[in-house]
Amino acid sequence: MDVRERLAALRAQMHEQGLAAYVVPGNDPHASEYMASHWCEMQWLSGFNGESGTMVVTTDRALLWTDSRYYLQAGIELKDSTIELMRESDIDCPSVVEWLKGLQVTGYGLRVGLNPEMFSVNDFKAWREQFAEAGIGVKSVDLIKPIWTEGRPAIPSDKLYPYSADFAGETVESKISRMREILESKVESRKSKDYALIVSALDEIAWLLNIRGNDVEYNPVVISYVVLEGDKCTLFVNPEKIDSAAQNYLDFNNIDVQPYEAVFDYIHGLRGTIFYDGAKVNEALYEAIRKPTPAPSLKGGEQGANAKNIQSPILIDKAKKNAVELEGERIAMRQDGAALTRFFKWLEETLVKSQESRVKSQESRDKRPLTEWNLMEKLHAFRAMGENFVEESFGTIAGYQGNGAIVHYAATREHCAEVKKEGMLLLDSGGQYLDGTTDITRTVWLGGRIPEQAKLDYTYVLKGHIALQTARFPRGTRGNQLDALAKQYMWQAGITFGHGTGHGVGHFLGCHEGPQNVRTDNNPTPLEVGHIISDEPGIYRTGKWGIRTENLITVIPAKQTKATTTEDEWLTFETLTLCFYDTSLIEMSLMTEDEIDWLNAYHVRVYKEVSPLLNEEERKFLARKCAALEI
Amino acid sequence: MDVRERLAALRAQMHEQGLAAYVVPGNDPHASEYMASHWCEMQWLSGFNGESGTMVVTTDRALLWTDSRYYLQAGIELKDSTIELMRESDIDCPSVVEWLKGLQVTGYGLRVGLNPEMFSVNDFKAWREQFAEAGIGVKSVDLIKPIWTEGRPAIPSDKLYPYSADFAGETVESKISRMREILESKVESRKSKDYALIVSALDEIAWLLNIRGNDVEYNPVVISYVVLEGDKCTLFVNPEKIDSAAQNYLDFNNIDVQPYEAVFDYIHGLRGTIFYDGAKVNEALYEAIRKPTPAPSLKGGEQGANAKNIQSPILIDKAKKNAVELEGERIAMRQDGAALTRFFKWLEETLVKSQESRVKSQESRDKRPLTEWNLMEKLHAFRAMGENFVEESFGTIAGYQGNGAIVHYAATREHCAEVKKEGMLLLDSGGQYLDGTTDITRTVWLGGRIPEQAKLDYTYVLKGHIALQTARFPRGTRGNQLDALAKQYMWQAGITFGHGTGHGVGHFLGCHEGPQNVRTDNNPTPLEVGHIISDEPGIYRTGKWGIRTENLITVIPAKQTKATTTEDEWLTFETLTLCFYDTSLIEMSLMTEDEIDWLNAYHVRVYKEVSPLLNEEERKFLARKCAALEI
Fold this sequence. Notes:
The structure is a homodimer of 631-residue chains. The first copy, chain A, is an alpha+beta fold and 631 residues long. The first copy, chain A, is built from 18 helices and 28 strands. Chain A is globular. At the A-B interface, helix 15, strand 21, helix 16 and strand 25 of A face helix 15, strand 21, helix 16 and strand 25 of B.
C-alpha cells in the first residue's frame, strides 16, 4: 500500500463508522518521548518520517501538522501524497482542534474519531470538551489497527533485566510498600486494601520494579503496564521479554505477570478506588474502568470502581533521588567528563592537523572533510569506552556555526556541515550509564578571531548559568521563580531564548522527566532535595552561532546562616556535571569576582575528579583547560 | 443590647431558620479593603474592633477568628463576651470552613447560614462545595439586618463629585464605549446589544464613570453599583449623594441613576448575557440573575439570562494607566518628595534639639517625649501642605526599632513607642492627591553606632530593590518571574520575607489594586505598559529592627538593543517615587559599580525634581541627603 491507498483504506473505515474526521496524533499508549516503531502510525499513514506531527483525515482532505524543524523534510516527503502541510510554528496556523471545530458538515451530526490509546485522559477530555462547544461528537475507536496489517513492526520483545538495588539504592519491596502507604492515605473510606494504581509511564514502571530494558532508543525502559493493588502488583508485559533470571527476580518480589494486552480486562475487573495520573494514563485504560451505575437500585446496582485522577506518587518519588542514585550520578559524571576531555583533545588535535596539512601542501593526505556527523560518532565512541556505559541518553546535537542556532538541530550522515578550525561549535550530548544519566552542553571556539558579540553572548549565558546553580532559596521555591536568575544578564542586553532553562533528569532513565523543572511558565512543583535538573541558558543568532552552556545540578540542603531571620529550611544546588568551560570566550570585564572565584573552584574540582581517569597527555590537556583565571 | 444579647438575638433568628451555625465574615458587599462602618457586622456582633476577623455562632458556642496582629486586642475586647478567640495565624488553628465541617449535629441535616452580600461569588461557591463534601448545606440569608436595628450607622451619604478628564486622561464616553466593544466581542451569539456587565468594585465604578467620593477612609470611592448594558449605563447609588452639579455631569454622560438597593430587582429583570467578575461581585447579585429554566418547553420556557464569570475588563484596563494619569503620578510624587524632605529635616532637627536640651540641662524645656504617633501626625501635616492633597492613601506605619519588624504595625496615640536619636525607623506612608496615589517606605538610622548586621540587611534590601526596578524583560513576563530578582541577595545570606514584593497601585484610587503584582505565588497576569506596582523588599529582625525600602515604579517600553536576538518587545520600569535613601546605612563593599551609578543618578534626579518645591534651607538639607557616593 502506498500513502494514497492507506488514506483510502482509512476513509473506508471512517465511512463505516460514520466519522467525518479521524485524528492520528503521533503518540504511543505510554506517553513516551521516544516511541517504538510499532506505534509510528502518523509516519506510516503520511509517509512523513519526522519525529513529531499530527495527521487529520476527513472525507476529502488529509492534513499534517508539524513544527518548523520539519517543514523542509515534510515538504519533500509529502509530495504527491495529497496531504497538506500545516505549519504549526507559524502564528496564523490554527491548532488541530480549532481547525476541526471549523469543519462544517450538514445533514448529520459531525463526529471525530480518536484512538483512546493514543491520548492521555486529560488531553482526551480537553479535546472532547472543546469539540462539544462546537457541537462535534467524539468516538473512541482505533481505525489504524484494521488497515495497518501488513509490515507493521511488532512491539519490541527484547529481554527485560533486573536493575540492582546497588544502583537503585532501594529495593522493590521498599518502594512498593511506600507507594501503598501513600495510596492508602488517599483512599476515602480507608478500607485500605480496596484500591489500585494504574501505571503506564514506562520510566515509572522501571523505577518502581527496578527493571530496565532496551525497547526504545535512549531510554532503558520496558514496554509494559503495572497495576499496583493493596495485596498484589501485576506487570503486564509480553511474556517473551522475561527469561528465567527475570522470572526469578519477579517471583522473588511477588510481582505477578500477565500478557501486555490483558491490562484492559484486568482493569475492568477492578473494584474500589482506582487511582490514575490523567496526564500520563491513556484514555483507553480509563474507559476500561467499570464506573458505578448512576442510579443503583436498592437491591444493589452494579458495583463499579471509583476512579481518581491524581499526580502519580511514583512520579513524585522517583524525582527525589536517594543517596545511592546521587552517588551513581557522580560516578557517571566522572566517566562523562573523561569522555568529553578525550573528545575535545581529539578535536583540537584533529583541527590542528588538518590545518597543518593544508598549510604544508595543498594536497591533504586525508581528503575527507571533518563533519558534525564525525563529531557525533567520535563522541559516542569516547563515551562507549566508559565503565557502565549503556547508550546515549538522546541524539547528540553537534551544531557548527549557524547550525548551533537551530535549537533542535540534528545533523545526519547525509546532511551535516563541515567543521573547520574556526568559529563556534555547540555540543549537547549525554549518556546512559548503569550508574546514572548525563546531559551536558558546552560551546567552544574552534579558531580564528572571536567576534566581540560572541564573547558578550557567551558571557551573558555563563553568568546566568552560574547564577542559577549558585542560587540559595527557601524550601517551597518553585523552579519558575528561579528562571529569571539565569536570564537577568542577557535580558539587560535585550536577549532571551525560547526553550526551558532546566528540565528534570532521571536516574538511568529518561533524560527528561517531571515534575521538576525551571521554566518561564508556572509549575506548582517546589524544588526538593534530590531533584536533578539541567541548567542550560542559551543565546541563538540565526545564521551565526548558538551558545548554550549546560550542567546537571541537584537540589541539596543549604547550611543555615547566622544572619537568617526565619525558620525556613534553605536549599541550594550541587553541580554534578564535570567538564571545563571554554574560557577563551569569556569577556572578563563582565565577570564579578564571585563568578570568577566560582569558575576557578569548579575547574579545580573538575581536574581533581576527572584526571584520575585520564592518561598523562590527557591530564595535561585537561590541566590547560582548567587553568585558573586571574581576577 | 450588649454582645451577649446580640448573640442571643442571632441565635433566635438561627433557630427560626433551622440553622446550626451562622458566619459573619467581616466583609462588605463591594469586596472593599476599607469598609464603611455600616457594614462592620463582625465588630458589632463581637465587640471586637480590629479590622479583620470572622465570627462563627452556633447554638451553644461563639468564636472569632483573627490574626496575630489582633490577638492582644481581641483578648481584651472579647472578655466576658462568651466568644472564644481562634488564633488563625497559629499553625494548628483550623480554618473557619474546617472547623464548621467538624460540627456534628444529629437528628436533622446541618445547615450553615451565610449572608450572600458578604461573599464573592467565587468564595461562596468554594465554601458551598467544601461544605457539601461534609454533607453540610448552605442557606443564603442575612440574619444581622433584622437584629441590628438600633444604632446601626447609615450607608455614607457624602456627595460624589466628577473627576475631571484633565486628571483621568479619558472621558467617560470613551471608557464606556471601549468596555462595550470588549463585552460585545465576548457575547457568543453576537447579538451585540444583548448583554450587561455587573460592576460592584468601588474603584472600578469610580474609574469607569470618572467620579470620586469620601465614603470610606483612604480610598476616594463612592458606594454604589453599576450595570453597564449595550445601550445604557445605570449607577445605583443613594440619591442624597448627588447634588445638582453631579446630576448634570451624570446626565451629560447619559448615566441613569437608580437607588442603591434597586440593583437586585434591576439585575433580575436583565436578559441576554450577564457578565460578572466572580472574584469581586457578591453572591446576592449573582442570585438575583434570572437563570434560564433547565428544560424549556417548545412553546417557550421562561427566558432567563446567561451568566458569565469573567475577569472584569474594567479591572484590566484601569491597571494600565494612560499618559495623563502617569503625568499626574509624577506631579504627585514631587509633592510627596517635598513633604518627606520637610519631614526628615524636621525629624533630624527635632532629635538634635531634644538631645542638646538633654545634654545642656537635665531639664528639657519640652518634657513630652517624641513618639511614633507624633511622627505620623507630623508627616500628615507636611503632606497636607501639598497641592491637590486629599488624604492619606493608608494608615502610616511608623515603626521604631523592634516595632519596625512588625509588618502590619500600627501605632496609636495611646500605644506607641518613644523615638530617640538612636536606632532604626521604618516609615511606610502614602498620599491621595487629585493627581495620583503615592506609597513610599524609607528606613533611616536616627543615631548611634550602626550594627554591622543592620548595614548588611539594609544593603541586601537596597540591592534587591534596585535589581527589580532596573530589570529589563520581554513582554509577557509575569510579576512572579521577577520576584527572585529582589530576593536573590538576601537569599544568599539565608534571609527572606513573608509579604509580597510589590502590589498594584491605582491612580487616585486604591493604594492596592489588581491584577498586577510581584509576589512569590503565581499570578497569570503579565506586566504591561502603564501598570504601577510597588517595589518593596524588606528584612525583619524580631525585637531589633525592620528594614523596608519602597518605591512605586511603572512599566514602560524598553529601547530595542542592537544585540537583541528576538522580535520580542522589551519592557522595563520607570521609577516614580522621588525621595532620597539613607546612604549612611549602606555597606559599600557589597555594592556594585552599576548599583552605585544608579543610586547617584537617582539622587541627582530627586534633587532636580523636588528642590523647586523647597525653600533654601530645605534644598540644602536635600542636597546633603542626595550627595553622590564615591565608587
